[in-house]
Write a structure and sequence with these properties.
By secondary structure, this protein is an alpha/beta fold. The chain contains nine helices and five strands, in the order βααβααβαββαααα. The protein folds into two domains: 115 residues, Rossmann fold (3-Layer(aba) Sandwich); 39 residues, no CATH class. Strand 4 and strand 5 form a beta hairpin. The N and C termini lie far apart (49 Å).
Length: 164
Amino acid sequence: MPDLLGIWVKAPLLRKSKLVIISKCLKWVNPDLYEKFSKEGILLEHCPEQEGQLTYGKIASIIRSSEPTKIIVVTIDGSPHCFTLQAAVNEAAYILGEKVEREHYVVVDGKELVKISPEAIRIARYLSLVDRLLRNNKWILGELKKHSKEYAYALKTGDAEVFE
């Protein structure tokens, strides 16, 4: 599979295509979802943890140079590295000032595919807004505990803030 950073932004296979930008680790986390999305369009793998933050510019260059018809992004939910890949697609469209059809997905606990809105990604960048949402919706911490080993550990060690 081509790698996002390793492909020429004007490669003929990208021209007017549907792009699927996918977390590189998904093929090991959930091979069935990886296979499903590999059939959706031109698959470009990427791992922000391994490959740094060149993502924004590369995606913007691909949009400008190859004019994809749609971009689908699939990452692992809860990964701080994968989050940057989601944000990079929104940011690239913003930088270019172009409307780009896109779909965002996360894979929850390696199993469940969940479609997310670009607004969820935008809000996640603003921790003050996330904090306000949390304080007004404390029940969500019960959901977090089901998914986050880091949060469960913080609760166990007394390192988690108690919201009352």
